[in-house]
């Protein structure tokens, strides 16, 4: 299984790619990446909840249509 890419590892890779000293810039980049990851995760959870609610509402409507209570 491949290693997990963490914000810290990605920040270090970015520093190397941008030819920046990781000891000077990696922590700031990692913090930015952690924030972006948290925002992305929150958006994914919200989208999942919305999709599940829509499925549940559709299923409830289908059940009501056939007379279920």
Please characterize this protein's 3D structure:
- The protein has 69 residues and is mainly alpha-helical.
- It is 80% helix and 0% strand.
- It has two helices and no strands.
- The longest helix has 44 residues, at 22-65.
Instruction: Provide the structure class.
Output: mainly alpha
Termini gap: 48 Å
The stretches of 5 or more residues where confidence is low (pLDDT under 50) are none
Oligomer: single chain
Largest sheet composition? none
The number of helical elements comes to: 2
Order of helices and strands: HH
User: How helical, in percent, are the residues?
Assistant: over 70%
Number of domains: 1
Q: Kindly report the average pLDDT value.
A: 93
Q: Tell me how many strands there are.
A: 0
What Rg do the Cα atoms give? 21 Å
Beta-strand percent range: under 5%
Please state the overall shape, judged from the principal axes of the Cα atoms: rod-shaped
Chain-wise SSE layout:
Blueprint: H1 7-17, H2 22-65
Please describe the structure with a list of short key phrases separated by commas or semicolons.
69 residues; mainly alpha; 2 helices; 80% helix
């Amino acid at each position: 299984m491949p290693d997990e890419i963490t914000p810290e590892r990605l920040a270090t890779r970015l520093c190397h790619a941008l030819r920046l000293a990781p000891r000077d810039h990696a922590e700031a980049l990692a913090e930015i990446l952690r924030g972006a990851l948290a925002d992305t995760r929150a958006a994914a959870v919200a989208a999942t909840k919305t999709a599940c609610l829509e499925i549940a509402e559709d299923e409830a409507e289908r059940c009501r249509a056939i007379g279920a209570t």
